[in-house]
Amino acid sequence: MTIERLDNVNVSGMEEMPTPEAVKARVPLSPRAAETVSQGRATVRDILDRKDHRLFVVVGPCSIHDPRAALEYAGRLVRLAERVRDTLYVIMRVYFEKPRTVAGWKGFINDPHMDDSFRIDEGIVRARELLARFAEMGLPAGSEALDPLSPQYLSDLIAWYAIGARTTESQTHREMASGLSAPVGFKNGTDGGLEVAVNAIRSAARPHSFLGINQHGRPVIVRTTGNRHGHLVLRGGGGRPNYDTVSVRLAEGALAGAKLRANIVVDCSHANSLKDHTLQPLVFHDCSHQIQEGNRSIVGLMVESNLGAGSQSIPADLRELKYGVSVTDPCVDWATTEETLLRARDELAPVLPARAH
């Protein structure tokens, strides 16, 4: 009797990855960078705990694909952040991993050369190098926690995390979030429903034990204490926005029903802008108007922004890529980003200090 192979039947190969310890030794965390991350996390926690009256704004490219353009963007953003700092706390959106419904480019970590070579070993090092550069500039970073192993390589450089709509219902990601050192926003489901995100916040606040790796790359049982700074991110869904006054009030009710604090972040892109990047500023200013009218639950906003507007397909000849333009979801350009944040600063400066009391 012939017994067929039982393990790794559909695996074509395995290559060793450098350990988290080795990657961190290659790209160490400087005192300046550590201070940026620490202050970023503390500020977001204080905003969520109502000790800081400002809004936090996570703004930046849908995904990073060109380090040179990302550094130019960061240089502009750190200057803008200083101009709005009394009203808005700016965090750069730094997404290296992209979930895919079927297929497509999976992000800078997975395929840094954008040629299907999938040099994840190079991608993780280059991603850490970029995060370290941003932190050295004094710019805190926000990112999506997608792969359950990548936080061991990068989490010491992240000030805020999001769990995406496709993974909020995943038990693996809820367990991972319970151990993350930064506050975590859970997006509502792709259908627009709130229940999966509310349940995720509750789950991540509790201790968990799960399989992971340590800094030496060895498999371990990870035991967490729970993350009490989970919060809700409204991103629309099912072809409908959910940033309007009624939707926000319903979200407040869902959080109250689960005995959770009314901390809501509005993602101005995705279904909230009906996937039209030019509508993102309208979503942003609608939320600003709600705050001016007395809303106290909206504590943050997200904007997909890049040097240039729109998006582009990845060409066969990468030399044809347009500089500073997204290769995933379309983004607003820099001029629109600056105008949106400066306008919000002017609108909200008289309102936010009173909201904290």
Descriptive overview:
The protein has an eight-stranded parallel beta barrel with strand order 1-2-3-4-5-8-9-10, surrounded by seven helices. It has a two-stranded antiparallel sheet with strand order 6-7. α2 (31-48) crosses α4 (120-136), α3 (67-84) packs parallel to α10 (334-348) and α9 (280-292) packs parallel to α10. The chain has a single domain (32-349), classed as TIM Barrel, CATH 3.20.20.70. Helices cover 36% and strands 14% of the residues. β4, α6 and β5 (184-187) form a beta-alpha-beta unit. The chain is an alpha/beta fold. The protein starts with 19 loop residues before the first helix and ends with a helix. The mean pLDDT is 96.
What is this structure's SSE topology?
Blueprint: H1 20-26, H2 31-48, E1 55-60, H3 67-84, E2 88-93, H4 120-136, E3 141-144, H5 151-154, E4 160-163, H6 171-179, E5 184-187, H7 195-204, E6 209-213, E7 219-223, E8 230-234, H8 245-257, E9 264-267, H9 280-292, E10 298-304, H10 334-348, H11 352-355
Parallel strand pairs: 1-2, 1-10, 2-3, 3-4, 4-5, 5-8, 8-9, 9-10
Antiparallel strand pairs: 6-7
